[in-house]
Amino acid sequence: MEKKPEITDLSLRKHDCIDQSFVVMGIVNVTPDSFSDGGKYFSTEQASDHACRLADQGAQVIDIGGQSTRPGATEIDVAEECRRIIPVIGRVVKKTHALISVDTYNSETARRAVDVGALWINDVSAGMFDPAMPGFVASAGCKVILMHSRKRPVNMQEDPSYNDVIAEVKEELWSRVGVFTKAGVKTGNIIIDPGIGFAKRFEDNIMLLSRMREIVSMGYPVCLGVSRKSFIGQITGNEPDERLYGSLAAIAPAFEAGVTVFRVHDVKETIRFLRVLDVVTERKIVL
Predict the structure, then answer these.
(1) Which of 113, 159, 116, 158 is closest to 136 using CA atoms?
(2) What pLDDT is stored for residue 13 in this prediction?
């Protein structure tokens, strides 16, 4: 079998060659109220140990966040967000070779995270909540994930509505990409995310997953976050910590459509699953 191309240049300042055609991003929620694991890793020690554990399982990127973005989540201020995650990032950077992503929509939090070693920024608002974010990303020269959503987490699930969810998500993502490139962010540093579960109805999530190739066709690497989400529970009836198989089932068609970055809670299981898919589909994707 022909050797698959390496995924390289995951950041501008750290070049780790990854001999796989996918990237698994492990989730570390330093929060008391995240929908799946809120409170489990709320201390600096618990969170950093969990991050290192995910890296040992094979996660190439660790996404560390201190603000829950589940539907209805209460917002915290930047000082509290930084208190939760900056010590964690500082410890994990010293203990693992995985790249660190900061899950935040606040540019000041992002700045402080980058100062201690974060190399990616995962902004669920795609810069809508903090107009300083595009300029900061440009100056930092780091990777940024721009996720589609509407409204803020506290009210995003209040009557979300689309006439054509694929067309509208694409149009709104293009708009946000334009804001970041106009601010000076290099196109090669942008990853897009259709925002499964964010300001979406059940049928919107299913439509996006079934037509993910149209999101991939935008020409940017795509990050997918479906891990343990509520639409899986609506199908299976399972609680969040019992949604592994549903999460893998949702990942499979996205992988075949060309999605390259997968944000997950269950790193070890997802990597094993994707390795098999990678071989049997002989996909050749470069991020």
Answers:
(1) 113
(2) 37
